[in-house]
Structures are given as C-alpha cells and as structure tokens.
Amino acid sequence: MSHNDTIVAQATPPGRGGVGILRISGLKARDVAQEVLGKLPKPRYADYLPFKDVDGSALDQGIALWFPGPNSFTGEDVLELQGHGGPVILDLLLKRILTLPGVRIARPGEFSERAFLNDKLDLAQAEAIADLIDASSEQAARSALNSLQGAFSARVNHLVEALTHLRIYVEAAIDFPDEEIDFLSDGKIEAQLNGVIADLDAVRTEARQGSLLREGMKVVIAGRPNAGKSSLLNALAGREAAIVTDIAGTTRDVLREHIHIDGMPLHIIDTAGLRDASDEVERIGIERAWQEIEQADRVLFMVDGTTTDAVDPADIWPDFIARLPKNLPITVVRNKADITGETLGISEVNGHSLVRLSARTGEGIDVLRNHLKQSMGFDTNMEGGFL
Questions:
Q1: Do 313 and 301 contact (CB within 8 A), yes or no?
Q2: Long-range CB pairs of 377-380, under 8 A, 24+ apart, other chains included
Q3: Which of 170, 182, 238, 338 gives 358 a disulfide partner, CB atoms 3.0 to 4.6 angstroms apart?
Q4: What is the DSSP letter of 329?
C-alpha cells in the first residue's frame, strides 16, 4: 500500500439508514468524479447528480461534494458522495469506484493519517478525532473537541516557546561570562521560570482530567460474602445489575458496570465474596476477584457493619490487607448503617478513607460518589480541558 494510492471508504455506519456516504481521497479522485458523475462538480458546492455504473446506467442519485486539494480535510483532492443508505446500494457504488485503477479501500484511520502527513492536523488533533468519536459523556466530547481544535497543541507550543526563550538567557550567561551584563541576575527570569512551572502543572492537571474522561477509573468492590457488595453495585449503577440474596456466595463471577459520575466514566466491578471456598466454581470466582483487585485503580473494601465495630482495615481483616498490592488505594465502606445506626458520612482512619452508608436504602451513596470523584482528582467544574 502506498500513500500515493487513492482511497475510498464508507463514512456512515454499516447497516441501513436514510443517507449513506462514501469518501474518496487522492490523485484519482478527479477521475472517479468524471467516471461516476460524468463531470467534475464545482468546488465546495452541493451538486445533485446520478451516480453511474460502468455502462452508464444509474446506480443511485444524490449529493456530490468536491474539495480540491490542498483545501480539504486530507490535503488531497477529496470527493464525497452522499446517496441512499441501503447497504446494497452502497456496496454497488463502492464496487463501481474500485473498478478504477489506482483506487483501493482505505485502512482504518487512513484519512486522518493523510491529514497528519499533509500537515492538516498534528498528532494530538489526529488522536482527538478517535477520542471524539469514542466519547462516552458530554464532558469527554467537549474536551476531545478542544483538542481537535488545537487547544492542547497551542498549550504545548506556548510552553516550548517559553522554555526556548529561557534557554537563550542561560546559554548567553554560559557563553559570555566576562560580559558586564549578568543575564540571570534579573528577577524577571526567575518569574518567567516560575510561570512556566505553573503552566506545566496546569497542563498536567488537565491531562489527568482528560485521561479520566477517556479511560475512566477501575473500582473493584471486594470483601467477605454477604457484606453487601452486589447491593452497592446496584446502588451505584442505579439499576438491578446484580442478583442480591441472603445466601452467601450468590455472586460467583465478576460483574462489570460502566457508569458516569458527573461526566467521569467509572468501571465498577463486583466480585465474589472472599473466603476459603470448598465449591470449585466459587474458588474460580474468588481467584478472578483477586485478579481484578490487582488491576484496580481503587478497592472498595466492603464491610458488614453488623459483624464488627472495627474501622481500621488492618483490624477488620489483616490477611486481606496483607495480600493487596502495595500502594493500592483502599476505601473502607461500612455497610448497613440503617441497621447499626451509625452516622452517615466520610472520615479518615490511619490514612484510609472510611465511608458509612446503607447500600440497601441508598443512604450515603452520594457521599461515596463524591469521594470517588475527588479521590481521582476529577474536577466537574474545570473549564476547557482536553483529551
């Protein structure tokens, strides 16, 4: 495959729809227009034309748009054909275009790749296209669009220019030590450096926000059987995602729910109750639970508040804490506050967060949601941002 090839691809999703779009980019796009349309449309105007087969018969009719390079998305000649969205019609039209020499099916992402190679997009903008398409929340979509419009690139370029400016002064001080002018004595240089450091910190914060929006946070609910893990999953998900019974060992496999908390994607994973199980199926489920725990961003250590008054995780279950990966953040969740009468809310115990709630009634769930959001540094009110 060569970048000199002319490429074609369907721009609309597979399946039936009111409109189906094919895009062609490359040197042969002009020939495709002449062969399929019978003429070259006026640049950047919508022409309603028949789309013709090899023998001149009409395959379809619709809108044709012509974007001569370099004034196009890819920087090459681009032809867009907007016809009816039936899969048979689109397939016939695609096969017709592929009969022309030098035209082939585009690889995934090749239109964006050509835009990058032709300096129409930088790398951050090219990646932002996929982020915008895959955005799972309104805030993620807005952040991806900011990156696509060049916000991230502009911030990076500004930092590079500022550092280059400071480097000039440092090199001048080294190269000309005998000069009467001390290039580094001026307090302005230190102020500029502090400004660059502050900008870098801000970019890191926004990049962290973007990472959360793109990838989400993986939170594993773990604990003994009947601690209320599945009830907590249902409360966070807002629906009956997991079966809840009084029978220990009801959950035997990993259950996953994808939710959003004020725009932050969250991957909640419910696991089998951890214990020494005699049942082979339950043992497999427990082993899978530990595999998920080892890959988690945070563990919600679910505790049945009716079985213990302890609040320090090391006192509640020392063997469990000892097996956890080092530096894995833990939030102790004391459940069944509706029965124990404990005061709802959040506190700190020996460096660990402690949340008291009732998964059954939903009391205290909002406190846990806010805690998860804050623990990952997610700022709902952050203006701008980028992915």
A1: yes
A2: 377/205, 377/208, 377/209, 377/212, 378/209, 378/212, 378/261, 378/262, 378/264, 379/205, 379/209, 380/139, 380/262, 380/263, 380/264
A3: 338
A4: -
CA-CA distances (angstroms) from residue 354 to 102, 311, 343, 367?
65, 7, 12, 11
- Closest to 359 measured CA to CA, from 268, 290, 297, 266: 268
Q: Please list the pLDDT of the chain residue by residue as tens digits (387 residues).
A: 667 899 999 999 888 889 999 999 999 999 999 999 999 999 999 999 999 999 999 999 999 999 999 999 999 999 999 999 999 999 999 999 999 999 999 999 999 999 999 999 888 888 888 777 777 667 777 777 877 788 888 888 899 998 998 888 888 777 777 766 666 666 778 888 888 899 998 888 777 777 777 777 889 999 888 888 888 888 888 766 554 555 555 455 678 888 888 777 888 998 877 887 767 787 888 889 889 999 988 999 999 999 999 888 888 888 888 898 888 899 999 999 999 999 999 998 888 899 999 999 999 999 999 998 887 766 655 555 666
> Which DSSP letter does residue 43 get?
B
From the number of C-beta atoms within 10 Å of its C-beta (0-12, 13-18, 19+), residue 176 rates as exposed
